């Protein structure tokens, strides 16, 4: 008779964020014990402050140590083994519920590597492309973590605003550090991150697959393969969806004609824009604008 495999424990949003309206929390763990594999309904930013251990995932087991920083999304089960003086911080969050302003953070290749690319390529790269902070950079990030922890604990008036600001500083600084990482294992993901950042900044310009391949110093074939592995679509399809997302925002807020919006987000033909918009959203730009502006 086969032994029963215990189910993986899944932490819910209600368990973690029940004490506040803010989908952001922090857990500092001193001398982290060995823990079984678990998952969660939210994302988790892990920063290792001291010690060593083995990070256990369904895709493999990887050594971690002071200065390592990585993101785990809700569908990624994990645990820890062979921990020795392991001190780490788990920042628990839901980007969708926080609704943070993206502003120009997408211009940093390291942002895309930290949140999307490294998690996607973790099994292939055997965790070698994770962010590794120098002692000086770790000390800097640890100071921001202290500030976030104090705001979450004290809850003085304005605490949610201040805690969110600290979290944004942590994300922006980690993204900057990642963008300038020099480890050879990180470079393939940074090249792909540079392509995504280029599209984020130049979505309204005429951009070809050859242009994107040059930005990433990759062949067209390699770029397309890496994009499909990371995002489930081709680079040009990703660019189209990016343009449609910007168009959706303009259709809700801007006093522009549909033709003007099409040109503003990078389409050179309003009819082509309408066809692509319907293919992505299932509705026409005009219908979308009408439904988005109806009184609620």
Describe how the helices and strands are arranged.
Elements: E1 9-11, H1 13-17, E2 24-29, E3 35-40, E4 43-57, E5 60-65, E6 68-72, E7 78-93, H2 95-98, H3 109-125, E8 131-132, H4 135-154, H5 159-179, H6 187-202, H7 209-216, H8 220-231, H9 235-253, H10 258-264, H11 270-281, H12 285-292
Parallel strand pairs: 1-3
Antiparallel strand pairs: 2-7, 3-7, 4-5, 4-6, 4-7, 6-8
Helix pairs in contact: 3-5, 3-6, 4-5, 6-7
Which parts are unreliable, with pLDDT below 50 for 5 consecutive residues or more?
Answer: 1-5
User: Helix share of residues?
Assistant: 40-55%
CATH class of the largest domain: Mainly Beta
Rg estimate, integer Å: 21 Å
Give the CA-based shape: globular
**Number of domain modules:** 2
- Average of the residue pLDDT scores: 91
Description of the structure:
50% of the residues lie in helices and 20% in strands. The protein has 296 residues and is of the alpha+beta class. The chain folds into two domains: 173 residues, Regulatory protein AraC (Jelly Rolls), CATH 2.60.120; 101 residues, Orthogonal Bundle (Arc Repressor Mutant, subunit A), CATH 1.10.10. Strands 1, 2, 3, 4, 5, 6, 7 and 8 form an eight-stranded mixed sheet that branches. The relative contact order is 0.10.
Summarize this, please?
The protein is α+β, with helices and mostly antiparallel strands. The protein contains twelve helices and eight strands. It folds into two domains: 9-181, Regulatory protein AraC (Jelly Rolls), CATH 2.60.120; 192-292, Arc Repressor Mutant, subunit A (Orthogonal Bundle), CATH 1.10.10.60.
